[in-house]
Amino acid sequence: MIRTFKTTVLAATATLCLGAPSALAQDAPDPRAIADRLVDEWEGLESFEAFMTARATGMLAMQLKPFEGEVVFGRSPAHWRFKASGTIDGAQGLGDGRVDLSRDTLGKFVWLDHQTLQRLESPKLPGILGPYRVYFMSEYVFEFDSITEFASGNLTHKGTAEVGGELCDILESRVSDNDRRQFFIARSDGLPRRMIGIVPIAGTFDITFENLDVIDNADASDFVLNIPEGYTEPGNIGRPNRLDPDRQVFLQNPPNWQLPTGTGGQVALDELEDKAVLLNFFGTWSGPSREAIPMVEDIAQVFARQHGDGVKVFGLAVRERDGGAPIRYFEENNLSYDLLLEADDVARDYKITTFPSFVILGRDGRIVDIIQGYDEDLTKERVLNAMTRAIIRQQRRE
């Protein structure tokens, strides 16, 4: 049975700046004991409902638009299922910004299109809702999986603060001098009420839960959207779900390759561990490929300035009759990113059929996105969104 939510305004006592404890802290508690309790409570949590606010700054704000609304989250074997009803500020294609979206145990998305008054569903949502309608929730939920890892790190107690009327201990874990996370953990139940992250260059994210209520026996009805009167149901849309077991293995462990560079060297994929990587499959013979080159150059220069050697951009030449044509093209256009030659077998292994195409790999070595084709209005935004997600992924662990 669907519960009635309580919504409140974000408590003024929950500060907006990272690491600003209140004067409520007296004796510094043991951060390890707080973290151990957090892990125990979190791992035992099956479902909860809350009023959620989420926002981001910097490059992260390109894909994580501010959200405010009522949410229900629940564990399933493969992922967190959820239902969200609220507003997204500044999202394209959303009209008045209302969003009603759910994801079930099998990974199927259901949402309401408030402009056409339709209930729609699909196993996958590549661009159907516009980038922010899906990314805002899937990327915020990604942080749930980092809680146990956070709690096992080197922790510092930063004081206390109130969030939505709950007195919370603030624990901070530093991944590096500039990359850090803070969790505001309620003393009443040991569960997080706020999560803040600072990611170098990429920006910050800030997630708050108010009126958090644990659901002990959640069932499927807790994750079903209420369909307003007058909405039609045209049925399933979108392409069939391609995330079959073989494809999941492919995305998590993409085939390795080694290719010659335009300057006589060699580059192998397994040498790029802990780097975010953009592969642009192109041909000098392809008009759309040539049209996309300035976009790729712009992206390469932006990430080179911001991340240096932490991000690599490669142009992979495909189906070239004249092996020297890509080298001359790069020289004539003064392109700053690296050229790789004879990439036909790699394109086949990655099932690339359209040129140009773009493959983005995260720092963990997994594929973040595959974008086939080029649209001057849409492709750059999608590549930037995928690259941002690639950068914030954790390094792959052996």
Give the integer mean of the pLDDT values: 78
Write down how many β-strands occur, each being a DSSP E stretch of 2 or more residues: 19
Overall 3D form: globular
> Helix amount, in percent?
10-25%
What is the helix tally? 8
- Unreliable runs: 1-25, 125-136, 235-245, 394-398
Distance between the termini: 43 Å
Topology of this protein?
Layout: H1 31-43, E1 47-56, E2 67-75, E3 80-88, E4 98-103, E5 109-113, E6 118-122, H2 131-142, H3 147-151, E7 155-163, E8 166-174, E9 180-186, E10 192-199, E11 203-214, E12 232-236, H4 245-252, E13 258-260, E14 266-268, E15 276-282, H5 287-307, E16 311-317, H6 325-332, E17 338-340, H7 344-349, E18 357-361, E19 367-372, H8 379-392
Parallel strand pairs: 6-12, 15-16, 16-17
Antiparallel strand pairs: 1-2, 1-11, 2-3, 3-4, 4-5, 5-6, 7-8, 8-9, 9-10, 10-11, 13-14, 15-18, 18-19
